[in-house]
Automatic annotation (TrEMBL):
SUPFAM superfamilies the UniProt entry points to: Putative DNA-binding domain (SSF46955)
InterPro entries named among the record's database cross-references: DNA-bd_dom_put_sf (IPR009061), HTH_17 (IPR041657), SinI_DNA-bd (IPR010093)
Record's protein name: Helix-turn-helix domain-containing protein
Annotated ranges, domain Helix-turn-helix: 12-58
Superkingdom of origin organism: Bacteria
Matches recorded under Pfam families: HTH_17 (PF12728)
Organism: Marinithermofilum abyssi
A GO MF term: DNA binding
Length: 86
């Protein structure tokens, strides 16, 4: 089942859908919800997570990956540049 295509028109995700999106065990999502680390709405005994919130988390994580991970090559070039100055 392709959760991402099916869920694009939805306004909320289930715990299982969020777990699949982030490639984690559903128990991890339940723990995060119960601790308050993840925004969710509990309806009866079932959780629903707003799609906009999940999309925002994905967007923030993608920006971190693109901008905050230094490469080993850059670190070596920086060291070499500092050695030339000495």
């Amino acid at each position: 089942m392709d959760i991402t295509m099916e869920s694009q028109s939805k306004r909320v995700y289930t715990v299982d859908e969020v777990a699949e999106i982030f490639d984690v065990n559903p128990r991890t999502i339940y723990r995060m919800l119960n601790r308050g680390d993840l925004l969710g709405i509990k309806l009866g005994n079932q959780w629903r997570i707003p799609k906009d919130y999940v999309d925002n988390m994905l967007d923030v994580n993608n920006r971190k990956v693109e901008t905050n991970i230094p490469t080993r090559k850059l670190e070596l070039e920086d060291l070499e540049a500092n050695d030339e100055l000495d």
